[in-house]
Amino acid sequence: MARARRFQSDTLQYFWERYIGDDSARIVEYEQAAADVDVAQAIYEMRSQAGLTQRQLASKLGTTASVVCRLEDADYEGHSLAMLRRIAEVLGKRIEIRFVPADKPKRRGSRKVA
């Protein structure tokens, strides 16, 4: 029996099967990397929608532009809840945290930032 497709793209599906497959450790690494990308992208999109440069957001946060640059980097793994709260407050947003069943695959795809 064929496994359910995870991606619409044949190429992405191929790479998933080739490099991740059913390896639970690699799935965890992938999900963590995907979460890091989501957070970085959300910060970038909210800052851009607010019409702020990295330097301007940094000034409002009381930090440096290099810190904001790092927070918007998809490879950055050090997002703290405290910093995310500060960003949300400065940008007039709030943070929502949800816990979902671990056995349900996370829906990947485009998402809107509130």
Features:
114 residues, mainly alpha, 434 Repressor (Amino-terminal Domain), 5 helices, 54% helix
Tell me the CATH architecture of the domain at 32-94. Orthogonal Bundle
- Which percent bin holds the helix content? 40-55%
| Unreliable residue stretches | none
Rg, nearest Å: 17 Å
Number of helices: 5
CATH class of the domain at 32-94: Mainly Alpha
**Ends distance:** 40 Å
User: Which strand-content bin applies to the residues?
Assistant: under 5%
Describe the sheet with the most strands.
none
Q: CATH superfamily of the domain at 32-94, please?
A: lambda repressor-like DNA-binding domains
Instruction: List the helices and strands in order.
Output: HHHHH
Q: Given the C-alpha coordinates, what overall shape results? A: elongated
Average pLDDT reading: 87
Q: Let me know the number of strands.
A: 0
